Amino acid sequence: GIQVEQSPPDLILQEGANSTLRCNFSDSVNNLQWFHQNPWGQLINLFYIPSGTKQNGRLSATTVATERYSLLYISSSQTTDSGVYFCAAYGSSNTGKLIFGQGTTLQVKP
Amino acid sequence: DVKVTQSSRYLVKRTGEKVFLECVQDMDHENMFWYRQDPGLGLRLIYFSYDVKMKEKGDIPEGYSVSREKKERFSLILESASTNQTSMYLCASRRQGVSYNSPLHFGNGTRLTVT
Fold it and tell me: Which residue in chain B has the smallest CA separation from A84?
């Protein structure tokens, strides 16, 4: 089945810095989602992005499906951005199952 | 906004107890899912349901069962809880679009401890 890999596994930033998180997938995907899991465990839907670029405030995401990767950009990071960022992909076999990466743990220091 | 509500935020149960985790969504979504999340293992799919009274095994169904009697509610059942089922349980739902192309929405999670 499809494999989803995220990098880096851990990231420490100073408040105000920018960062890029990467998600690679091993096969064609129908769609891709980015989530943020806050320190209380809640998974927040950030982007649902099959291709192209979307922006939401300080966050933006780009998916290049033909090259099998997606990027999540965080600009002017804040301490509330801390947590784990997951990407998850829908495989092309249309089983409806979402395959998650292992996550990137981000810590933003004040 | 989509709301997925899990009945308990924290739960402590004893080994051998039958445990029910409840999940309700308010957006008339067809598909619902149960995941568990463990350190170092990521999110793993336990069971999912395409619609009422339908269920499919995920990657780790052993020791669990599910019930979907109404569209808005998806219950996860631990028939006889064991300590290795101590975990964070996450429920999710989504509208069944074309080719399953619609975003997944998660509840707040239930931290279950089995002693």
Answer: B42
Contact A87, A50 (CB under 8 A): no
Nearest to B38 by CA among B17, B59, B53, B67: B59
Alpha carbon distance A58, A71 (integer Å): 14
Q: Do B104 and A31 touch (CB under 8 A)?
A: no
User: How would you write the pLDDT of chain B (115 residues) with one tens digit per residue?
Assistant: 779 999 899 999 999 999 999 999 999 999 999 999 998 888 999 999 989 999 999 989 999 999 999 999 999 999 999 999 999 999 999 988 665 568 889 999 999 999 9
A39 and A83 Cβ atoms separated by less than 8 Å: yes
Q: Cβ atoms within 10 A of the Cβ of A19, count?
A: 18
Q: Is B41 exposed, middle or buried (0-12, 13-18, 19+ CB in 10 A)?
A: exposed
